[in-house]
Amino acid sequence: MLALADQLHREVAQPMERTVTSEDGSVVLLRHGFQASEGPMGHPHQLRLGLLLAGGGNLYQRTTGGVLQAPWHPGQFNVVLPGDHGHYASPAVELLGMAIDTAQWRDTLGGFPDVPSLSLRLHRDPVIASVLHALWSSAQVDACVPGFLQFGAEVVVRRLAQLAGHPPARPRMAAPLSSRQLRQLQGFIEEHRSQPLDVAALAGVLGMEPTTFSRALRAATGMPPYAYLTQRRMQWAQQALQGGLSVTEVAMACGYANPSKFSAAFRRVVGVPPSAWPRR
Question: What is the pTM of this model?
Answer without folding.
Answer: 0.62
